[in-house]
Amino acid sequence: MLIWKTTLVTGVAAFALSAAGASFAQDPSAPPTYGDVNLDAGFSPDPYSVDIAAGGSIDAGQSLGGNCRGTLASAPDVDLYYTSGAFPLYVSATSDTDTTLVINTPDGTWHCNDDHTGFDPAVTFSNPLSGLYNIWVGTYSASAGLPDATVHISELDVTTETPGSTGGLNYSLDPNYGSVTLAAGFPDDPHTVNVSAGGPVRVSDHIDGCWGNASAAPDYSVYYTAGASFPLYFSAVSNTDTTLIVNDPNGNWECDDDSGEGLNPQVVFNNPASGRYDVWVATFSDAGDFPSATLAVSELGLTGRPGKVAPVGLDWTLPPNFGSVELAAGFVPDPHVMTVNAGGPLEANVAVGNNCRGYVSEAPDYDVYYDAGSWPLYFSAVSDSDTTLVIHAPDGQWYCDDDGGDGLNPQLLFQNPQSGLYDIWVGVYSAGGGYPEATISVSEVGATDNGYSGNIDWSGTPSYGQVTLNAGFSPDPYVVSLAAGGSEEASGLGASCWGHVAGNPDFNLDYTASSWPLFISASSSTDTVLVVNAPDGQWYCNDDYSSLNPAIEFGDPQSGLYNIWVGTYADTPDYPPATLYLSEIDAKF
Length: 589
Fold this sequence. Notes:
It contains two helices and 45 strands. The protein is an all-beta fold.
């Protein structure tokens, strides 16, 4: 290398030269020496790389002029046919030799760069065009011959090293134990493969925050199609202390030592991307042996031995005893209710620990596949017997409760629930408690059993429909015509409730709150009452707010579902017409 070499500008595009009216020794129409590449915006894997031999016999400075440098071939090394989107486009080259880069873009403009990173060149297109990019990699020195080089195409950043290589780990190599293609919701979950852990590469020398000793090639590759809001778990189980290294579809390295059971590692992708995951199972020590290990891939939160997460048999991979349901945030009706038989032969505190109580079955009683939003999530069980609740959540953790609900009934609250699978067991507190009937309730509004034993059911279908309103809604008020009254006594709901209402709500309001108050009111020629079950699960009632007309003001309303009844104060066989008003300004009559 000549010591007087001048470093070129290393910005977004180091140099651009219009091709209009010019003749060049580089021939964009010639077939590319190393083939065509067709990529659309959002392509995977990223970076996309092509191995070539750099250099040639033509001086780019003489043939192209400007700031172009290096000796090139006449034909392009690679032709990139690119469909652009919202991403920038980075084209770079890496080599052990000082190389240069020349690109002819779809608009006929030439772009050149020499030393973007060290002696490696790169060109960035912030707003790339769709079309053909002819790419040449030259050598700075004419005497360098035809050294090995790699062209990298990326929408993420300039690639400054051989793709997949950290200097030790290289995901461009064939995986030691093969690969698998999986899509969201895949059966036989967890997917497992037996591998031999370890290898000669000391991972900490190449990836910050990672540990262990691994092979250069991945142990296993997973081609995954994401969907349905499932997380993705990678875990390894061995009698030896192991670590786990995963390179995700975006080129990020994720590492773990002991997040699984005992000395076993686990890596979790809560919002996994579609694409290829390359996985290494490493040994923590550099003893040089290659212990057996089981690699597991799961969407359900596996943390221990595949298929068995507790030594005495609770197995969330078994089919649930009483079925399953898929629910998304804002689901209706709320609560979702399922009747099961509680209990089983296994002692929860031995199987799970975590202060769990009761006796449960091996398989879950019920599975809930939940797509989370901004709502909390409540699980409760109601029975005439003393019951307990055990839940295996999407984060792989166990949650238990005995008497968190009403009386001897259990309840668990997930304030910021994750999307994924919730496996539910309903246990009996005492050994020999049999298999009593119990009702599992899943809710986002937090209603609990207040001892009411009548037939007023806020989960029933509203007689006069439902509306979704956001704070600041217009027109204000929102008006609903309905018939008041019903055969059910509202006084059983609480000390401030009176009158007679229908079993199902008259109307449901799904409301997104802000800084506005919320007024719910009703008017009629008859003395009417108002009953509301609010998102906090509480009952609110009023009789005579203005004359004989009722109204309820929520000064700081919650977002969520308001179940509304307009009743009659007197027990009357007819159902007089009434008008319901929803307002953020004032009570309307």
